[in-house]
UniProtKB/TrEMBL annotation, chains A, B:
Functional note: Catalyzes the NADPH-dependent reduction of L-glutamate 5-phosphate into L-glutamate 5-semialdehyde and phosphate. The product spontaneously undergoes cyclization to form 1-pyrroline-5-carboxylate.
Name of protein: Gamma-glutamyl phosphate reductase
Organism: Gracilibacillus xinjiangensis
Gene: proA
Signal peptide: none
Protein family according to the UniProt entry: Belongs to the gamma-glutamyl phosphate reductase family.
Lineage, opening ranks: Bacteria, Bacillati, Bacillota, Bacilli, Bacillales
Keyword Amino-acid biosynthesis on entry: yes
Amino acid sequence: MSDLLQKAKLVKNTTTNLATKTTDQKNNALTILSRELREQKAFIISENNKDIERGRANGLHESLIDRLILNEQRIDDMAEALLQLAELNDPIGDVMEEWSRPNGLNIQKTRVPIGVVGMIYEARPNVTIDAASLCLKTGNAVLLRGSSSAIYSNTALVKVIQDALKQSDLPNDAVQLIEDTSRETASQMFKLNDYLDVLIPRGGKKLIDTVVANASVPVLETGAGNCHLFIDETAKKEMAIEIAINAKTQRPSVCNAIETILVEKNWAENHLSELIAALQDADVEIHGDSFTMAKGSNISRATEEDYETEYLDKIVAIKTVETVQEAINHINRYGTNHSEAIITENDANAVTFMNEVDAAAVYHNASTRFTDGFEFGFGAEIGISTQKLHARGPMGLEALTSTKYLLHGNGQIK
Amino acid sequence: MSDLLQKAKLVKNTTTNLATKTTDQKNNALTILSRELREQKAFIISENNKDIERGRANGLHESLIDRLILNEQRIDDMAEALLQLAELNDPIGDVMEEWSRPNGLNIQKTRVPIGVVGMIYEARPNVTIDAASLCLKTGNAVLLRGSSSAIYSNTALVKVIQDALKQSDLPNDAVQLIEDTSRETASQMFKLNDYLDVLIPRGGKKLIDTVVANASVPVLETGAGNCHLFIDETAKKEMAIEIAINAKTQRPSVCNAIETILVEKNWAENHLSELIAALQDADVEIHGDSFTMAKGSNISRATEEDYETEYLDKIVAIKTVETVQEAINHINRYGTNHSEAIITENDANAVTFMNEVDAAAVYHNASTRFTDGFEFGFGAEIGISTQKLHARGPMGLEALTSTKYLLHGNGQIK
């Protein structure tokens, strides 16, 4: 039997046991894992070094090397995050709704684990701990498939997890790592409907697109963010500029940063040159329409391709529009349904924008950078869903749960 | 452009408009459609006759012909169901949760339509009205793909729907039927991620398996029901027998009927012969283990295959077990996670069974036949989900909704 199938069976066999564990038992396992991570720091770092050395020998870019590194600080951060996760409310077992039918049948809708989560992810080895701990907290078993470039680190971290599980009341086999990182094995994993209840890809667009296109197991899609800021006629100048700078520059490489600014013509007439200057002071390269180009210098012409691009960099497109409706149409055409914002003092326009823009999160007078599980107050985040089913927007622990109806009767028949 | 792509674009273009329609506007459209169905009865029946005649000419089995037929009574029933649907609560626009963050940002989690629903279904033409009306009630556009055997009926019904939409405030193009019923077109539909937000297959196991295996669009899976009844040691004899007869015979062809009865040994020693007699009196064929065979006559030996089979007929497998744990293990091995029941007066065993059996609905002292949107009190049903994501168990209107976060600030930046 292949490594994949064998491990899929191992994790699947733990689900009934895991589903019945108490919150204290799960939190205790997370606390033990936190301690083990600190105690096995030297082992983890030495295994991680093998990935780093091989990466350097293979000419991996330093920014990718940086993402691979597990140093003392990063391991301490992971250990600390586990203790914080243990403090969070456990959604499993919650009775979400309860009602009785005229025939006396009592119905409870309860939260239960999903079962087995298949996690497919790229370089960062911290995802190994992150994904495994979020799954364990919610009573799920997890089959991990990381990238070959982090295989030593991931193997070491899963050994530490299994050491911790052995000291806990949770089943030892609940977390498994696929050591064969070939594409063939990943493709087999996409079709493992008998063992996996969901696949969660974490990484770049290409990885996610491949999983979505090829998986028959249901996927939780965390997609790209081509996000917009619309500055309406009545927007306060300082607020609009401050939010534009924040949403574009505070961390340009993330999915909730903005890529295009749409500016209402009258506002643009009065304030666009100031917005351009502020962006350029912050080292942002601007691609603009003719109106925008006339309001500043060093602006290249924005093309159709600009409006379709998630720059993930200090580049922004600026386009002027006549109405809120034109802004909405642009966003619904080019956006990726992630995070969108309107800056306005006109409440009617805010309502129209928020109702008609199709996105996971729509903001009025605030930066798009708040689309994040921690900023929302969830205390944890598995990713930001851009699909419409199951979970949309920042996903906290509840996104890792399913439901089960419990029905109590006294002999009811139909 | 193909018929499929053209219609996919038409429906997709209506989603923003549809999402902003009021409950009154949507209910008004359903009421107009109800009237149009009654007024265009002759047209519908005459088109339906073409399908019936072709079906008979092709030697279609009479039971399938019966499923195809649209007569006056059935059309009146559909018209009546539309008026009942108009009476149901509209989930769209509900604020499900609302909270504020320490920085003053206010977050609302609201219910919104999913967008475009792709519906792939077999013979019964009433699904055309059923699916379209549930989608319209929840502000969704819908692309329908019925079977070739019902193409005249489906085309007529969609014409009636479009006539009704033209008299309503809803966009005319919100419901479209793919007239090309080839497999190639269905396969293209499976991959239409740019236009469809979800695919819902309705029909037999083969259809559903094909969609799940091949679709890259997210699927709402409504699967098979290999359901069990476990009669525990302390089960009241009359209740256990009455529920067994009801769950097996009241409508054997549906997914929430039971296929295997597991009986605790001591109960079996005292009462199994009476259960066997009652089942046989109700014309149920029994496949049993050795213990069961010794308690009655005309019982064939149950094999591994029996335990895996959803008979959907007046046949039942009976197996004796020593403990509740043995029953749970059998169910988690052979069941399809649909509906499972325990009959017992022992509350501890009921709790163990309900916690450890992995199914959408688990019953204590009631028939599995209640797993149904109407029996649950939802007033409508799109199907019964056997998957873990998005919706599990009977799906009412809420299963056709997604969520959107609306965030109000006064200049918050990160």
